[in-house]
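Reviewers of the previous submission asked for a worked example of the structure-prediction workflow described in the proposal, so we include one complete record here. The input consisted solely of the amino acid sequence. No template or homolog information was supplied to the procedure at any stage.
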Amino acid sequence: MEVLAPRGTRDILPDEVGVWRRIEEEARDLLESFGFSEIRTPLFEHTELFVRGIGEATDIVEKEMYTFSDKGGRSLTLRPEGTAPVARAYVEHRMFSFGRVQKLYYIGPMFRYERPQFGRYRQHWQIGGEVLGSDSPSVDAELIFLSSQILKRLGMKDMEIGISSIGCSSCRRDFKTALREYLSRNKQALCGTCIERMERNIMRVLDCKEEGCKAVLQGAPSMLEYLCDDCSRHFEGVRKRLSIMGVDHFIDGHLVRGLDYYTRTVFEISYRIREGKIALVGGGRYDSLIEMLGGPPTPAAGFAMGVDRVVLALGEMRGKDERPSVFVAAVGEGLFDVAFRIAEGIRNGITGISVIIGDEREPLKKQLREASRWGAKLSVIIGPDELRDGSVSIKDMETGDQEKVAMDMVLDRIRRKAKGDEV
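From that input alone, the workflow returned the following structure tokens.
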């Protein structure tokens, strides 16, 4: 019996990797241009980090974490999200003592045990950015702008950006009371999970995807009606800055995130594809998390982008790596050393080019078929005749045109062709 990948995971094959790399490279380039530095945290953490940080009564902690005991009896969990590990690292390494706002980003896999479905995997990849040490509404707006710019760079248009504020613990108190009164009057229409959430974590009801609950929630009170003066000013500050930045957005008064550490600003960026609307980015402010993990009071905000979902949204762009590639065909045994020197000269002399060497034992026709299978744009052919007169033949694999070039001109000729200066 064959061994398959575990349910909810999959292999990213070579002809798909190109679009993944492009997403990661565009994100990395833009994040670093905004002053972010990369941080890499462990794939697993002490379970307590997520119980304290995300919230014990959240779906993630209750149902979706991959938790296990190690040989020392310690409870460990594969990270289900990236913010709590970054916050833990910030506290552990006393990064708050560096005397400046920290702007950190990460790229890597996360793990959640949930039913695999379209756009949802048990191992999924995220790109995230975190800003720690500032309570300015400019930070919130910049994170929304930045994450939307990554998607725009990838060619995505017509994104839907929903924003809201879930206030602070003070103004949420009155909202929860009003929400509980409203839901109690409509309790018969709620699912069993939401009836349970009413007692344990009532804000989670707002995140229910059941159609009956969604219908009830249409008439529920909005958190925006209960914001205190400070939270209201902060939210207006975010909106004002988004307008200055030219970010089209709408207010979604029932928007919440599935993690308890959020405060004030929350946002979500969605995109419509043939299968329906999918959320690509989510984030917001979490001003209490650092203190909750043992650090000093530290305001913070961040976002996370689901790379798997971005790949789905860019489905028509999925394909092979678009780097120009060259195939070196040596015709005749004993010519591998020459082919190797040519290939190394191209690799070292031209940045971002892929070079493959053929099997010198095979006839030229078979090597050129191999070059086509690799998707090579050019083939450099070296045989006994070329070796005698110190030249090579360069074949354009798209047009079939072929020309002889002096050995010392190969690099210059390929560079010009790779750049598109010549057809």
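Residues 316-321 have pLDDT under 50 and may be disordered. We consider this example representative of the routine output the project will generate in years two and three.
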